[in-house]
Amino acid sequence: MRTVEFGRTGTQVSALALGCMSLSREKLEASKATVRRAYELGITFFDTADVYGRGESESILGEALREASIPRDQIFVATKCGIVFQGMNPDYAYKAYDLSAGYVKATCEASLQRLGMDYVDLYQPHRIDYLTHPEETARALEDLKAEGKVRHVGVSNYTPDEIRALAAYTRLESLQTQYSLLHLEPLETGLAATCHAQGMAILPWSPLHRGVLTGARPSPHDDWQAQREAGVVAQLRPFADGYGVTPGQLALAWLMQQPGPVIPLVGTANPHHIAEAAAAVSVTLDRDDWFEMLVIGRGRPMPWGQRPFAYLKER
Known about the structure:
This protein has 315 residues and is an alpha/beta fold.
């Protein structure tokens, strides 16, 4: 398994991460087997959140790591805070966001207890809280770092301006955001550029666009968006065949080829799926192919069109 530096920490992590949102008691044995298989494949980066299964994902991840006797210092564990689902906290009757200092610290303690760990490697505000000043959130995160409960800080689902606002008060090492060949906003809105400027890793969630980019999901004929996505997958399939990989592996390789680094979070509770995804780490795409795949995903040509010099000749 290839490794990359995480942000500017000097810490090496696997180039692919296991997203743990799907871990559940309902699929307990498969969930634990997926964690074990990921580690066997060289995946050292595990991402979860306090709201995944209302804490269930964190608990299962911790159990699976202990039962497999995986050394704590050989893995990189990330979790998140700030989303409050109804029923999670008696103070909230409605889904809300809370990044106040007291809530950030309390939820970190709860996450550590569920994980059965003394610290997390990465702690991430899950979504922006418009009622808390970023300086207050940063102060809580800095306190947790000083106490040894959090080693590094990142953010999830932040805009470029929101990243800069929080980064003014604390060092940010990563951004977790939706990103795939069927969701290209990080490239087109300046998110990726902001991360490069800040020295932050990019952690795409849903890198296979809810499984659509694997080519294994049927597309309803009465849904124009699903049909457009199916058309993209059909155009990408010859590239996958040419490289001798599956469409899903091709889509992951396309993300990982970018600088940053870009570390896809592959969410699954299926050991076979994570094994297939891990094989994408060794795939390198030609530059021309990478850009042609981008054009296919965009559904429109890059600036200057597909024949960049045609306009000049016509003039």
